[in-house]
Amino acid sequence: MTLSIIRSGAALGAEIAGVDLTQPVDDATFAKIRDAFYTHEVVFFRGRRLSDEDHIRFSARFGELRKIKIPPHYKRECPPEIHIVSNIIEDGKHIGLYDAGRFWHTDGAYFINPHAISILNALEVPEKDGRVLGDTLFASVTAAYNALPQAMKKRIEGLQVVQSPTVRDRKTAQTDGDRDPVRVAARAKMQAVHPMVRIHPVNGRRCLYVSEGYAAQVIDMPEDESNDLLAELTAHCVKPEFVYRHNWRLHDMIMWDDCSTQHKATFDYELPLRRRMHRTTVIHGNA
Ligand code: SIN
């Protein structure tokens, strides 16, 4: 099999074809995958059903994986490295997170050591009239940074931002009410401060690190000014020219860079249409 990289045509995103991830990948193949990933920021593999074991083995090549503590009101039967994102309910309990990705965000931005990479494997996809629903959108925040006017680049250099999940939890409560009070309470005190412009640890690109889901406050800036700046920049990050929209196929596995991209899910389906995704998270990449 020959590995090939097919670019999406958008600012980010590429398919990697010709690799069988049901088997361990050799070092030379892994080096090509890694290189494609850090070039295109989002890459995906199609056409093979991958078990949790395949998924974890491949993910662990990129670094240490996060083990998830799932709250008791979720039903979960899978290894701790697997985080389920799903609308499925079994025995009256959600089997996984059912509203992940409602707002644009980067995974784990509210941790002191934010996540490096997320890898999502499609085990069940909702299909209607021959089309798979539940697309995921990805935005390149390196492209967004590069496109900023010089004056804005200068203005934001050195700024620090508080990142907190309470931003998205408040927005969710405004539109949908208290959807998951147990999780919301558990996350209420989580927050971290990060540079507004992060330097990517692997490729050195400048990444605009603000999202509508988590960017709470610019440090040492009056609240009104901070709100205006964050609104302007978070809207800028997700302009159509920086976005790749992934229309899933069953058994797709897609991985994204949590420093150089943001993502958002599309909630255009509901039960009885089932969607089940398994996600691994690389905490510290092997830079
Ligand atoms: C996520 O935000 O991690 C989930 C994205 C999706 O389900 O499409």
Please give the CATH class. Alpha Beta
Provide the β-strand percentage band.
25-35%
Radius of gyration: 18 Å
Shape: globular
Describe this structure in words.
The protein contains seven helices and 20 strands. The protein is α+β, with helices and mostly antiparallel strands and 287 residues long. The protein has a single domain (4-285), classed as Double-stranded beta-helix (4-Layer Sandwich). A hairpin with a 2-residue loop joins strand 6 and strand 7 (93-94). The longest helix is centred in the C-terminal third of the chain and has 15 residues, at 223-237. It is globular. The protein binds succinic acid (SIN). Succinic acid binds next to strand 19.
Describe this protein with a few key phrases:
single chain; 287 residues; alpha+beta; Double-stranded beta-helix; 8-stranded mixed beta sheet; 3-stranded antiparallel beta sheet; 20 strands; binds succinic acid
What is this entry, summarized?
The protein has helices at residues 27-40, 52-60, 141-146, 150-156, 166-176, 181-187, 223-237, and strands at 4-7, 14-17, 42-45, 63-65, 83-86, 89-90, 93-94, 117-124, 127-128, 131-132, 136-140, 160-163, 192-195, 197-199, 206-208, 215-218, 243-246, 253-257, 261-265, 276-285. It has 287 residues and is an alpha+beta fold.
Topology:
Layout (H helix, E strand, L loop, with lengths): L3 E4 L6 E4 L9 H14 L1 E4 L6 H9 L2 E3 L17 E4 L2 E2 L2 E2 L22 E8 L2 E2 L2 E2 L3 E5 H6 L3 H7 L3 E4 L2 H11 L4 H7 L4 E4 L1 E3 L6 E3 L6 E4 L4 H15 L5 E4 L6 E5 L3 E5 L10 E10 L2
Parallel strand pairs: 2-3
Antiparallel strand pairs: 1-2, 3-18, 4-20, 5-20, 6-7, 8-18, 8-20, 9-10, 11-17, 11-19, 12-13, 12-16, 14-15
The protein binds succinic acid.
